[in-house]
């Protein structure tokens, strides 16, 4: 099932959040990384500034900078007011309150917007969408997916999840997905079926605790290891 751009909001996190959400080590940060659905996150721009290698794919990169800015502006109020209306759904340690969250996110998205033109020219921001990627088998060491799979459980089918994860495993031997909660802050109903399907296919799929929790109870990622990416194509 395809998802429309309007049902998945553009909302960007920072490199420090990516490090914690995916429990990235120095070695991980120095590997070849693919970010799936990175949208307006500042992960790519911050990593690039440090001389590291990240390619981000997202259908939002087909839009102009002005169109992305417009979508961020439309999204901003509704997300921050949802946080204000339901503060109990979040852990206020990384951010002290919804306004601090809003400032942090806008700062991340501004970093992305400033880097967009150069990133498009460098081929670091590519207009592609799961569940199909154009990369060669094993082209990356690590594929990350933040706040798309599992979060949009109600919008994206189980088959979409399996296909998307298989495709990430084809291009990278280590795949990490965060969070495992849906938009209603419930554990996604797809976790167990996805783990069993992937294990049946010979991949090692595990739920792993991480040192980041913002959605309450959202302190786990799924890690799928494919020792031989080309065998999964
Ligand atoms: C909530 S944002 C998360 C952005 C970023 N990963 C982060 O955590 O800060 C979800 C992103 O998924 C993107 N998206 C939607 N459908 C997609 C697909 N089929 N393949 C890849 N990205 C998709 C959206 O355009 C949006 O930028």
Q: How would you portray this structure in words?
A:
The structure is a single chain. The chain has 233 residues and is an alpha/beta fold. Helices cover 38% and strands 15% of the residues. A seven-stranded mixed β-sheet has the order 3-2-1-4-5-7-6, with helices on both faces. Helix 3 (43-49) crosses helix 5 (98-122), helix 4 (65-85) packs antiparallel against helix 5 (98-122) and helix 6 crosses helix 7. The radius of gyration is 17 Å and the shape is globular. The protein starts with 14 loop residues before the first helix and ends in an 8-residue tail after the last strand. The structure holds S-adenosylmethionine (SAM). S-adenosylmethionine binds at residues 3, 5, 8-13, 36-39, 41, 58-60, 129-130, 146-148.
Helices and strands in order:
Blueprint: H1 15-21, H2 26-29, E1 33-36, H3 43-49, E2 54-57, H4 65-85, H5 98-122, E3 125-126, E4 140-146, H6 158-171, E5 172-178, H7 191-200, E6 204-209, E7 220-225
Parallel strand pairs: 1-2, 1-4, 2-3, 4-5
Antiparallel strand pairs: 5-7, 6-7
Helix pairs in contact: 3-5, 4-5, 6-7
The protein binds S-adenosylmethionine.
The site of S-adenosylmethionine (SAM) has 21 residues, from loops.
């Amino acid at each position: 099932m395809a998802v429309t751009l309007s049902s998945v909001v553009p909302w960007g996190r920072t490199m420090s959040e990516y490090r914690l959400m995916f429990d990235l080590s120095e070695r991980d940060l120095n590997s070849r990384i693919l970010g799936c659905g990175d949208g307006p996150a500042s992960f790519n721009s911050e990593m690039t500034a440090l001389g590291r290698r990240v390619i981000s794919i997202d259908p939002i990169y087909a839009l102009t900078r002005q169109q992305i800015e417009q979508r961020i502006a439309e999204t901003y109020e509704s997300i921050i007011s949802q946080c204000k209306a339901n503060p109990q759904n979040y852990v206020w340690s990384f951010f002290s309150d919804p306004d601090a969250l809003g400032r942090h996110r806008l700062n991340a998205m501004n970093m992305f917007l400033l880097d967009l033109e150069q990133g498009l020219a460098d081929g670091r921001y590519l207009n592609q969408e799961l569940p199909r990627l154009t990369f060669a088998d094993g082209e990356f060491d690590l594929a990350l997916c933040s706040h798309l799979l599992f979060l949009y459980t109600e919008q994206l089918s189980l088959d979409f999840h399996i296909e998307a994860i298989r495709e990430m495993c084809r291009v990278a031997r280590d795949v990490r997905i965060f969070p495992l909660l849906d938009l209603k802050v419930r554990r996604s109903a797809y976790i167990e079926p996805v783990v069993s399907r992937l294990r049946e296919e010979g991949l090692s799929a595990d739920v792993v605790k991480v040192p980041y929790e913002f959605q309450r109870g959202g302190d786990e990622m799924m890690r799928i290891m494919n020792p031989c990416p080309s065998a999964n194509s």
